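Figure 3 (text version): structure tokens given as input.
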């Protein structure tokens, strides 16, 4: 989907992940991870990277120390702090000294713009709060720093007393602030409220950089940020993947493509939008989080089509059910199989897996769809199990040759003392081309032991499986009302270092379900290896 030529107006981006984002529950970056993250954003084209609350923790101080030794081609590292404390002279305020010691060209300081916070939190008069803002900005600018003034609780303050909220901005600007940040700290504003308020601020400060900083408590942070841009702000602040305290901050990963592709407003480096998904995934990795499959633009399922009618339309013209091209943000289209699938999806999935189902064979298509629907009733799901689907398809096309025959297996779990770990052992007997193989394996759990025993039995015959590793193991209880007798679905992700595939098993017995998924994992690898050999010959 082509879009119009970019506007001459540019919106700058300010990332607060290393401060605001890390206030989110479960968010943590290592020391080296912070530096890697800063370089990731620099290469991506982010303009400002907030490094943390200066001096608040040893790790924050260490980041600024390390950042001074690094070269950032584009981004400016920003130290964050507050205005001076109420009863401390500006020259004696330790927080302001820490901001200077960070040695960043830009600093951001927050101050109160809501009378509620002035009286109930700071416990000072309205005029005292203004002096705190003025003296703090003056102190920093006099020492060569470029200051962004973060008007905390601005939108709530504007609703309560618009004139006073404006005075806090006027005070900061007069003292030398280069930018004024309008913060929806409680995340309670609606988009139309943000638009009207921002318009008033921009009209009052036509030559000043105005920024929006939205929190997501109402689920509106991205929408509020976009409305602020429409109203005239020149900078958007947020966090990668929407990290942040409570329900998070405005998600830059959703904001960036909205600006670039839908509003024709450049905001990152030329050609960098295709790296959007990579930035999102690497950030999750550095923060030790699982990527959200349903994340807009970059999630695994963002361009995933399941309904048969939708898939059929997309195959004819992607614009029918896709708002942007997946490749424009570094993602890709995929079709998943389910009971809602139609013949078009079956043919497309077969093609992706290297199998050709001709349109002239409607009987086979109907049989496959009927089998999928029955299996889904039994608890199977193939959205994340392409490996199992390919084997099922091979069987229904009468092209499948089992790699081995199972004579049987036994799994033993032993507990020898209350403080001792459980021991797991599995034995398995298989036949390959009439030759019997009996092996045993030990593992951290029964499935691990069974996997080890199977590999020992088969590697001699099929060395291709030696490099196959299980990368994920997921268990889902399908009928919780049946308690320990419930159907269990096991999904296994496997990789040979080059490609990755998923397999699925379902049974009332978790070991049996795991065996089904393990068996499909091995057979998929052997099937793939066999096809590769045939193509080379």
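Below: residues designed for each position.
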């Amino acid at each position: 989907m082509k879009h119009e030529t970019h506007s001459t107006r540019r919106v700058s981006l300010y990332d607060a992940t290393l401060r605001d984002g890390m206030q989110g529950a479960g968010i943590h970056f290592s020391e080296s991870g912070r530096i890697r993250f800063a370089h990731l954003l620099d290469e991506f084209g982010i303009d400002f990277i907030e490094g943390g609350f200066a001096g608040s923790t040893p790790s924050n101080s260490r980041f600024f120390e390390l950042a001074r030794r690094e070269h950032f081609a584009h981004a400016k590292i920003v130290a964050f702090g507050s205005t001076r404390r109420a009863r401390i002279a500006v020259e004696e305020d330790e927080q302001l000294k820490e901001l200077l010691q960070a040695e960043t060209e830009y600093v951001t300081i927050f101050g109160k713009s809501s009378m509620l916070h002035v009286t109930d939190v700071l416990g000072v008069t309205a005029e005292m709060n203004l002096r705190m803002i003025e003296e703090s900005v003056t102190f920093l600018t006099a020492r060569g720093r470029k200051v962004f003034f973060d008007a905390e609780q601005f939108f709530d303050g504007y609703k309560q007393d618009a004139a006073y909220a404006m005075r806090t901005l006027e005070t900061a600007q007069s003292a030398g602030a280069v930018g004024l940040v309008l913060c929806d700290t409680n995340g309670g504003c609606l988009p139309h409220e943000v638009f009207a308020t921002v318009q008033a601020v921009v009209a009052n400060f036509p030559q000043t950089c105005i920024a929006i900083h939205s929190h997501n408590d109402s689920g509106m942070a991205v929408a509020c940020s976009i409305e602020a841009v429409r109203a005239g702000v020149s900078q958007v602040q947020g966090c990668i993947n929407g990290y942040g305290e409570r329900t998070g901050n405005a998600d830059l990963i959703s904001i960036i493509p909205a600006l670039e592709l839908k509003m024709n407003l450049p905001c990152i480096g030329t050609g960098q939008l295709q790296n959007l998904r990579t930035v999102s995934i690497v950030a999750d990795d550095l923060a030790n989080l699982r990527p959200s499959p349903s994340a807009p633009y970059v999630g695994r399922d963002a361009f995933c089509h399941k309904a048969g009618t939708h898939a059929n339309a997309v195959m004819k013209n992607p614009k029918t059910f896709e708002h942007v091209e997946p490749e424009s943000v570094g993602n890709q289209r995929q079709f998943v199989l389910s009971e809602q699938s139609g013949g078009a999806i079956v043919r497309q999935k077969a093609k992706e897996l290297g199998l050709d189902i001709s349109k002239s064979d409607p009987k086979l298509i109907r049989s496959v769809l009927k089998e999928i629907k029955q299996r889904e009733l039994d608890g199977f799901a193939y959205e994340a199990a392409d490996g199992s689907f390919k084997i099922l398809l091979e069987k229904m096309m009468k092209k499948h040759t089992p790699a081995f025959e199972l004579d049987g297996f036994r799994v033993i779990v032993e507990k020898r003392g209350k403080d001792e770990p459980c021991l797991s052992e599995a034995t398995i007997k298989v036949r390959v081309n009439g030759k019997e193989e009996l092996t045993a394996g030990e593992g951290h759990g029964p499935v691990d032991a069974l996997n080890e025993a199977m590999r020992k039995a088969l590697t001699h015959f099929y060395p291709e499986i030696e490099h196959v590793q299980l990368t994920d193991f997921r268990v889902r209880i399908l009928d919780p009302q049946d308690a320990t007798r419930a159907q269990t679905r096991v999904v296994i992700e496997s990789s040979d270092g080059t490609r990755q595939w998923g397999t699925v098993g379902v049974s009332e017995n978790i070991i049996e379900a795991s065996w089904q998924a393990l068996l499909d994992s091995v057979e998929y690898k052997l099937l793939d290896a066999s096809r590769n050999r045939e193509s080379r010959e």
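Residues 510-536 form the longest helix (27 residues).
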